[in-house]
Design a protein that fits this description.
With about 200 residues, this protein is α+β, with helices and mostly antiparallel strands. It has a single domain, classed as Dna Ligase, domain 1 (2-Layer Sandwich). About 50% of the residues lie in helices and about 15% in strands. The strands form two sheets. The chain has a five-stranded antiparallel β-sheet. α6 runs antiparallel to α8. The longest helix is centred in the middle third of the chain and has 17 residues. It is globular.
């Protein structure tokens, strides 16, 4: 896990354009790499469990009532599965290094406004729970239905996650114009998004 400043040194191809843009503006934040999410899934055998859970779904003829029940169970499975202790300690240390281990934080995917919020205080369990809630939202009914329509399956690839100070940002068209970008998100701490 890297602060935005550290991540930006790795380049846009590795960490994404938004992280590089935010780092250039001095925004405090942290990137949780996709490998961390993937390690969580594999450490508790989630790919197999989710595969078995969604076995009854036929992508060519989706029973939306059955899918709704299964997605609720999948979200609960993600939220209630445990990260390994070593991974939790790495997460807590990284939050501290990024200065995000106390106060309000929000967790989101790069380029997406939807987020989970937490009031972090050491050891930052609330921030960890917000991270898992965000990961669980990938298994919400609408998200799974879109994947079934677009790919014919429910599987997904791990993606980076951003942790930023303060509550969820809102669009600020005046700042966006001043920065020469289409969209800028701000909250009580200042700039928190340049998708």
């Amino acid at each position: 896990m890297l602060t935005f400043e550290e991540a930006a040194r790795r380049g846009e191809a590795k960490v994404g354009a938004e992280v590089v843009r935010l780092a250039a503006r001095g925004v405090c934040g942290m990137v949780v790499p996709p490998e961390f999410e993937e390690a969580f899934y594999h450490s508790v055998n989630l790919p197999e469990q989710l595969g078995r859970l969604f076995t009854p779904i036929n992508p060519t003829r989706i029973d939306e009532d059955a899918l709704e029940d299964l997605t609720a169970r999948a979200e609960a499975l993600i939220r209630t599965s445990f990260l390994m202790d070593d991974a939790i300690q790495v997460f807590y240390r990284a939050l501290g290094n990024a200065g995000l281990d106390s106060g309000a934080v929000h967790v989101r995917r790069p380029g997406h406004l939807a987020s989970e919020e937490a009031q972090a205080m050491p050891p930052s369990t609330a921030a960890l729970q917000a991270l898992k809630r965000l990961w669980a939202s990938d298994w919400a009914f609408g998200a799974v239905l879109v994947r079934l329509d677009e790919t014919g399956g429910v599987g997904l690839d791990a993606r980076p996650t951003l942790i930023l100070p303060g509550l969820t940002g809102t669009p600020d068209p005046v700042l966006a114009e001043a920065l020469g970008v289409q969209t800028a998100w701000v909250n009580e701490t200042g700039l928190v998004g340049l998708p």
